[in-house]
Amino acid sequence: MLQEERFIEIVKLVENRKSVTVQELMEIFNASESTIRRDLNALHQMGKLIKVHGGAVADSGYLSLDMDVAEKSNINKEEKIAIAKYSASLIKNEDFVFMDAGTTTEFMIDFITAKQAVFVTNAISHGRKLARNGFTVFVTGGELKGITEAVVGEDTVRTLKRYNFTKGFFGTNGIHLERGYTTPDIREALVKSQAMKRCRECYVLADESKFNQVSPVTFGGFEDAIIITRNLKNNEYKKYKNVKEVN
Amino acid sequence: MLQEERFIEIVKLVENRKSVTVQELMEIFNASESTIRRDLNALHQMGKLIKVHGGAVADSGYLSLDMDVAEKSNINKEEKIAIAKYSASLIKNEDFVFMDAGTTTEFMIDFITAKQAVFVTNAISHGRKLARNGFTVFVTGGELKGITEAVVGEDTVRTLKRYNFTKGFFGTNGIHLERGYTTPDIREALVKSQAMKRCRECYVLADESKFNQVSPVTFGGFEDAIIITRNLKNNEYKKYKNVKEVN
DNA sequence: GAATGAAAATGATTGACTATGACTGAAAGT
DNA sequence: ACTTTCAGTCATAGTCAATCATTTTCATTC
Fold it and tell me: How far apart are the CA of B247 and the nearest CA of chain A, in angstroms?
């Protein structure tokens, strides 16, 4: 049997059954464990399925990738909380705030004391949390991405155009002097970019690991926001006046 | 069984039943206590559910804040599920569907077989559930009401004006020949009303208790939708051709 | 159209890693 | 006080990526 055929059959199987184990595939194709593993790696790389421990699940499933997010939220947790705490203190009662998706911005919510502030967010989980804490909160309309539970797309951008925020808090995957703020997803970048344009003051929340990183899509220039960070070892960035280091 | 599968199933169980015990999960999955505990810890960490002593509850804001809603979802549960099941069968692959907030419409989601259908909803919980089940789903923008987790307001209505649905599924608090379909909240009524206007076919899902009830605000006339119900004792309504009784 | 050699695909083996279930003493609920 | 539930530890079985040897594929050459 051709490798290509097997690829196609595996994808079909995963889509129909939602999940499949390496053992099952070995029997079905009379192939060795190595071969099946290689296939799954390749298909995972291509984005045709999501490889998990023991086998693979369909890409429509939301959990597997979310695990990375969960893991991620534990990395530099102390840093993020300190950053979030300071950021939350910037929000005053009269503010109209855009809150971006992301783990660091999520940490902010519990520290916000200005109960009269009004929020707009494109992150479902943030919206729920804000609403639960008694804030007035609007969510942007648009397509709900299963994996990150953020709202993206044309609709979202359109909705944002009608708002004028006093402050905006953003997450980022990379900070770079020339490339600015970057993120891996183009649709999320469009939303971030539009939101930044609508804010009087933009704040980018980032731990040390984000500096000098570049992701595929830029959503803002380095000068466009104040960076709130902590324990910055990279002296290169310390000198810029829009870099705020907190304790 | 893959760990991943178990994760997904547990989340579904928790969302459907609103709460679940460790013991129940052990029996359902034939897994040890340790495994179930580990799963619940992981899912709690991911924010997919709330771990409590003895098991877990849904992370839907429902339970903790508004016991009434939780109770409400258990009243006439059998009826509602039967109604939901039939309603779900009406959705075809080529449909562009509006799905209203409410417990009955929520039950529909697990029964929808047309995986190509596209959904718009103003209920956050519905959106998450649809996305998790692999559907393409858009949420309307607007103010997030903490308790019901529905999105309402001027923004929502504005967003809806740009859509043309093939089918819409609605909940209601009252059905009355002259007063039509009614709900207690004026802002929700505005959303429902606009959504109904944008649908080629409207379906109102209602158990027997809703007939001859009138709530403060009307969002549609009796003739504007097909009522899907069950065990209708009230003969007065049986004769209308837009009343569909299911088994 | 057979022989040749490079590239690709496969299968077996390894040690490292992950998931699981049983057990334990501590903590929580009654 | 008593029972249930909990988090942590351990041993075991299953799964993983990496490596290497073998086979297959295929274009090139004679």
Answer: 29
- C-alpha distances in Å from residue B162, one per residue of A155, B121, B159, B168, B188: 10, 14, 6, 15, 18
List the one residue out of B219, B230, B238 whose CA is nearest residue B168.
B219
| Cβ atoms B119, B138 nearer than 8 A | yes
Please state whether A205 falls in left (phi above 0), alpha (psi between -120 and 50) or beta: beta
pLDDT tens figures, A64-86: 344 444 444 455 666 788 899 99
CA of A50 to C1' of D25 (A): 30
- Least CA distance to B62: which residue of chain A? A132
Helix runs in chain A, H state only: 3-17, 22-29, 33-46, 63-72, 77-89, 103-108, 124-132, 154-160, 186-197, 235-238
Q: Write out the DSSP string of A206-235.
A: --GGGBT---SEEEE-GGGSEEEEES---H
CA of A18 to C1' of D24 (A): 33
Element (H, E) at B174: strand B174-176
DSSP element (H, E) containing B107: helix B103-108
Domains of chain A: 3-61 (1.10.10.10), 72-246 (3.40.50.1360)
Positions in chain A short of pLDDT 50: 61-73
Nearest nucleotide, CA B32 to C1'? C21
What pLDDT, in 10s, does the model give residues B154-182? 888 988 999 999 999 999 999 999 999 99
Q: Assess whether B38 (CB) lies less than 7 A from strand C.
A: yes
Beta strands A151-152; A142-144: pairing state: antiparallel
Residue-level pLDDT at A1: 79
Report residue B100 as tokens.
């209203």
